[in-house]
Input
Amino acid sequence: MKRIIAIAFATFLLTFTLAACNRDNDTTAQEPAQTGNDTTAGNIVADTNDPTMVEENIRDLGGQHFIIGNWWSNWHVDTFEPQTEEAEARLFDRIDVMERYNFTMEVRRMGGWGEVRDMIPLEIMAGGRDVHIWYMEPAWFGTMNNQRLFAPLRDEFFDAATGLNWHMGTIDASRREGVPHGFALGIVPGGGVFFNMRLLEEAGLDPELPFDLQLAGNWTWDTFMDVARATTRDLTGDGIPDTWGVATFGQEFLERALISNNAMFVGMDPDTGRFLNTTNTPEFLEALEWANDLGTEGVTMPEPEGMGWNFFIPAFENGMAAMRAAGEHESGSIGNNLSDPWGFVAFPKGPRADTHRFMGNTNFQAIPVNFSAEEVDDIMFAHRQWVRPMPTFDDPLAWTAGAFAAHYHPRSVNETLMMFSRNPGLMSPAFHLIVPGGMPHGPEFGWRIWHGNDPAVILEEAQPRWNDYLARANGDL
Output
């Protein structure tokens, strides 16, 4: 079996930054990964050379009906209309396994993002048993797992033959007293840099320069800044740039800058599972200073009056800026709205890193604690059949068809996304996302750059609060 792990990162789950900022209105700027073998645009398959999945022992589940709850879509065997040969094969495979093991299963949208977020703990604490598996964001899971709302899972469910071990980092991150309480079926492509080839060319640069620098191993903070300076241009002579080097969100940019320099907001002691404050390190301060330099260098577009906090989205898509740091999921919006040729490369390397590092998006899945150990075994057994690999479509490059359709330039797939899939060890942990209650890394750090604040002062002022957050997460307060 070649496991579908959707962009093949190896450690822990990462972030939904843009989506989180839009959810006060119960909207989702980026739909989460519909992981596993359901239709998922942009999933990347890594060739992991796993053994062929073994045939399960015949097991009669007694006609039980299982529900998987989420906030974005439905999937039911009676209503699903496959659009591809693989989707049709998946439909028939699910019919087969449900008949063979005597169960039915469906995916059901239980409400909007905010509704589901609030619904999960209320339903579980009220003894609810209607939903057998919940999808949830990392921050939700961290808080709810700390409240002991989820059933323990046996490690046997996640051996190489089961098909549920596609994202072992999530499984390990879900452990409490050494026992897993959640899992994930994959991750979708993480962060990088989109660039406008026309603006590069008009600035006198090779329009494929970021690709060439990445391929040569020279796509670094310095070369990124060189491109940003060259493409920040005052075309009318009024002293105000008409095109900018960068239009981006400070919080997103800082997250990627930290990862690119081998820094992180929160660490974890592997022996005790305790969260650690890792902001007060040389790597962190260096990344914070460099990210802030974009403002002092005058290459990042300031928020125009009346456009709102997310001005950088239309700014880039309207050809007003040469580069934007964002998750790969934005390729659909950019492809639909940007009329210029464009490309996608990894985030540039920091001086403390010898290779590019990545972040990605995933959701936890977990079973409410209201089910008995025997019922949990039935649920996991059924779900394992529901998402089992199909050897007929065991093509490690099948994901490229969707990726090529989503990206303007083939080098974005052949070089950037292929690098993601072939190097799972390049994913960086983001433990701050599973700290119970969440970590306010935007207000503490990302939102404060580019506004005349000294990075050292930003860091110093955050320390007491950051230590307090982690002390509470570790149960010390």
